[in-house]
């Protein structure tokens, strides 16, 4: 996989996930999260807009949860595709799945104006599921951490 092209932008043009609210490249009103693999870690970058706020100046918690959910799923699927030698862009449905469970801890308020970095890693590999630990950082400080279990199809 080419390291400089976001995982979301590598998908086949007919892939249904391209319309996901959190990460879909084709969702006009979506968040457009961009994820990359860096070794065994998923790294994401995202910048909020003013309408993503909760209390003025801070990121809405639901938006943070969506980012963690999508980035965790991308990390799980990208690692799986890499391990199996699959090309995300070759098949309209290279794999699918759903979030079985997600827990989130808000460590500190996430500033709205900062570019956010998401870091995710595989912590458990089940027969049909993957559990991912994911954190959101602003200005180098951890603001939100989560754990997501993805059922792989």
From TrEMBL:
Signal peptide region: none
A GO molecular-function descriptor: thiolester hydrolase activity
Family annotation (SUPFAM superfamilies): Thioesterase/thiol ester dehydrase-isomerase
Residue ranges occupied by any Thioesterase domain in the UniProt entry: 57-141
Record's protein name: PaaI family thioesterase
Source taxon at top rank: Bacteria
